[in-house]
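Q: Joint fold for the lines below.
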Amino acid sequence: MKTLNDYIEKLNKLNFKGMYNSDFFLTWEKSDDELEALFTIADALRFMRENNISTKVFESGLGVSLFRDNSTRTRFSFTSASKLLGLEVQDLDEGKSQVAHGETVRETSNMISFMADVIGIRDDMYIGKGNAYMREVSDAVKQGNKDGILEQRPTLVNLQCDIDHPTQSMADMLHIIHEFGGVENLKGKKIAMSWAYSPSYGKPLSVPQGIVGLMTRMGMDVVLAHPDGYEIMSDVEEVAKANAAKSGGSFTKTNSMEEAFRDADIVYPKSWAPFVAMEKRTELYGNGDFDGIKALEKELLAQNAEHKDWACTEEMMKLTKAGKATYMHCLPADITGVSCEEGEVDASVFDRYRIPLYKQASYKPYIIAAMILLSKFENPQATLKTLEKVAKQRKFD
Amino acid sequence: MKTLNDYIEKLNKLNFKGMYNSDFFLTWEKSDDELEALFTIADALRFMRENNISTKVFESGLGVSLFRDNSTRTRFSFTSASKLLGLEVQDLDEGKSQVAHGETVRETSNMISFMADVIGIRDDMYIGKGNAYMREVSDAVKQGNKDGILEQRPTLVNLQCDIDHPTQSMADMLHIIHEFGGVENLKGKKIAMSWAYSPSYGKPLSVPQGIVGLMTRMGMDVVLAHPDGYEIMSDVEEVAKANAAKSGGSFTKTNSMEEAFRDADIVYPKSWAPFVAMEKRTELYGNGDFDGIKALEKELLAQNAEHKDWACTEEMMKLTKAGKATYMHCLPADITGVSCEEGEVDASVFDRYRIPLYKQASYKPYIIAAMILLSKFENPQATLKTLEKVAKQRKFD
Amino acid sequence: MKTLNDYIEKLNKLNFKGMYNSDFFLTWEKSDDELEALFTIADALRFMRENNISTKVFESGLGVSLFRDNSTRTRFSFTSASKLLGLEVQDLDEGKSQVAHGETVRETSNMISFMADVIGIRDDMYIGKGNAYMREVSDAVKQGNKDGILEQRPTLVNLQCDIDHPTQSMADMLHIIHEFGGVENLKGKKIAMSWAYSPSYGKPLSVPQGIVGLMTRMGMDVVLAHPDGYEIMSDVEEVAKANAAKSGGSFTKTNSMEEAFRDADIVYPKSWAPFVAMEKRTELYGNGDFDGIKALEKELLAQNAEHKDWACTEEMMKLTKAGKATYMHCLPADITGVSCEEGEVDASVFDRYRIPLYKQASYKPYIIAAMILLSKFENPQATLKTLEKVAKQRKFD
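A: Joint structure:
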């Protein structure tokens, strides 16, 4: 695409009315048109930034972030996206401000939102909790807006929960759309979402779940591979099955990494913890059973150690389509001999794919900004047109 | 009011010259006209925001915050207010930067202020310290400006000290002005500022002190109720008495919550620590006597436990005017059966008043923004007019 | 100078093409013209701010800060500078985000830079590490930009490393240029960069190193004074010698504070740790030998205590030119009887020089802003002209 108008015309053909004034919790709650609109806006924002056209649609306003887990890249992506649109970020640091549950969630959600246009939350630590918490916050501010407490209704953006990691999977998808020269070229392509060994034990399930929940919509042949016992959330598997049936793709499971990699166009090897173990951990945590958690961790590490052969080695890569599948990772990866003794991927494989991997990550700020823009602006085509007409420079010339 | 001009005309009738280039420490240091101007500016800013008119009066500049106590809502209010006017917030985190006393206060105050337009401080932990510290900072930057070190003089905003909590009491007042349909309707109304039981022991005195120090100016009948031994700072009682005499209202004290609630138009039941105990605590802290502090806390908790009947129950509410007094709280409240076993207020009472309570809190960012605007702009009427004329949208349309 | 055009004309006479798209690591990597351009831009930005002309050259963008040591003044200077140009600051807090070495530096540097225009780093704790780390980050983002990962290339600003502290020394220099009425008046002036006793043991070497590495370029007679055993990095001494030879000034060393102060026009008495001790400390730290570090600290404190007579007393000041040398310090100083029992400077000396000392510090935000501007804008004269023509007010009028 060459002009902003190309993006606008594409938007004109899509029905994404449902995005206005909505939240972004799970990709499978959105229609195909809505996701395509989101990709289009993300590309348009990138196009504008690369052409030094300001995309500041807010003169003032806040983006509130809440990270219940350490984060560098998602934090910077959220800040970058907010600032790109003109919002200042105020972090709700629970260490400083004690956010609890129930009544307190409702109250705090309103108290931080008097001038908030968006709330981004990362809460991926406990099964059954993160997504539920986000919805609780969203309900509170929606009600606050209805009750006349909040002048505007802040949009909620899921920056990673126990179920999905939509800003990751959407950035991943936008990356391969560009790598393969268009979403239409993804049809019939084989992608292997595979477990891989890592010396750490409890990596979130939201990445593999997000990937199979999204990639199955594009007519791709999605293979989920993991050792026996490393099952993901069954609800998401059902989503993937239904998606595949609808899109004309497929969703299969295997306990063989080799089978998954064979003739794959794309591989996404990554460690995660078994869903049932994470459920158990959540229960232990709820009971304050910290000895139980320690025992569980030990058990999981031992279980992991039996599967050190699940690694994205040079030999494994040779199995893929022409030995040249696109290698993906959400980063940071556990690189054998670099960040750990034995890990998810060989150093030589990682090295060869570093540039596209970094590019993959570069889409996240634009995806987040597009989520905000689509929720806050009823007619984004008009918004983009006006921005182009005003033609304010991002960086003074 | 319907147009911005209505606010401007109101301002034209008031004398608030003293606000320009001044700090906001205590409400009782300000004239009636000055407070009315502040309420008017706060309303005008809200009006403009609700009508999508940008109120960004700074292209760049800093709002510096210093919180010597945990804070969510005041932190977000200060950030919201700063951003509303175009200032970026930089927090002075003492954990990261060690602010001490004496020479260091003078130096640090200047070092953080080379481009600071406002400094907001919360320092409510020790009697005789917080307000004094704020004045020390203010003196330092005033002198720095005179000496040609600081190009501009940052305004100091008291975000809660040991004596007053002006951003809270002013927001509370603006709320009831709107609830009762105008400040003139508050004349003769009875407000009960009452102690209430909470399982925690050392809540700041600045809220009850701020309330009796401000509400007595509006011709209201202000009743301060608490168990024997829970006296507030006597200096503030003197302020309240003098205010009442001047405004034609009254200021009375009682050791009976029932008496205070009877026929009250407004009730504000809230826990606080006895002033003398807090003075003792400050002394113990000064001597580094941490065992003494622990003993004192234990003693205070035992004393509190004798007054669990001081609670805003449904029965108590029935005593109020038609059983329907406005219930106020600075939040978060200790709600019986919700946030604690026995607390300041019944869950059913709190629930019934939740919406107005949240609205009460929503005024704080506007109050803070009005404090900044009145101090930094000599002719705010002209400033508002120009903003309206420029008519830049807060949120792109 | 009276008009912005004066600054622009001065810039027209200078060759500073090398600054565009470059980093600022060490002053001695920059040409005389480049440093003069930097001073000129800093003065121009100050002139504009003092005349209420907006210097916002970015509509959006990030300034990323990374402080590996506590910091108040440098943190605020970086935030002030960034905001002055329109950049929002996002701090990379390692406590929150674990920045390690090698592969991770490359990856993290790119991940935080998708929308970053500048990265400011303070890393002064370990010899041989800080400056090397900054260059590693810079190399990573330069490569990222070449590889098409980063749309723009963030500029790196050294906010203090193990070798130099260029934002400090440049601010110090700009201060004395103004104090002495022009850089030409510094020729032949004697400046004593002297060690002074402090009760703390390991103050960074970057200040004395930065001072002798910069001041020797202005034709000044630079005397480095310290007790035997408190040598600075020998590489920097070589830089100072070469500078002096070229500029027609001199660089001498002495173990007598009196000799350094005698007839000095400027004195800069300040504590630092011996270079060899800091090298040893870095080695111990690398080996995880924390007992060794403790023993070293004890040893250094004992060594320091032998030199309590190295203090900037009233008597010492009498030795200086007419008893009225300019007293400089990077602040905070250890003031005898104020911040410590025995320290670097007498309280009466410090008091007499407080105003110029604070002014000295006030240049830092402008120096940082000038570093950013010169690196991001190829033709800063045109940029300044346009800013003047647009004439947007910083603070609404």
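Q: Anything notable?
A: Chain B has two domains: 4-164+364-390, 167-360. The domain at 167-360 of chain B is CATH 3.40.50.1370 (Rossmann fold).
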